[in-house]
Specification:
Elements (H helix, E strand, L loop, with lengths): L2 E4 L13 E4 L4 H11 L3 H5 E2 L2 E2 L3 E5 L2 E2 L15 E6 L7
Parallel strand pairs: 1-7
Antiparallel strand pairs: 1-2, 3-4, 5-6, 5-7
Protein name: Molybdopterin converting factor, small subunit
Length: 92
């Protein structure tokens, strides 16, 4: 089962600069575990205590997984997962 994962610039150091990588798994948690086998250190940046980190947004086919089943969200072959770290700061 192939799932495309889009990687933000800040995490590309874990993927040797690749903008997108392929992974597999039946849930988001399994996908992150699979990614960790080839891109050591990436899982720790995404997951804390078995849950998504507070300031990491993950989208499955353009839907925020926090409104689905979070890290337990089911995946299917051909799905697209986008990782977007939250951005804060600046001045108005």
């Amino acid at each position: 089962m192939a799932i495309e994962v889009r990687i933000p610039t800040i995490l590309r150091t874990y993927t040797d600069g690749q903008k997108a990588v392929e992974g597999s798994g039946t849930t988001l948690a399994e996908l992150f575990t699979d990614l960790e086998t080839r891109h050591a250190g990436i899982q720790e940046r995404l997951v804390d205590g078995g849950e998504l980190r507070r300031f990491v947004n993950v989208y499955l086919n353009d839907e925020d997984v926090r409104f689905l089943d979070g890290i337990s969200t089911k995946l299917s072959d051909g799905d697209n997962v986008t990782i977007l770290p939250a951005v804060a700061g600046g001045r108005l």
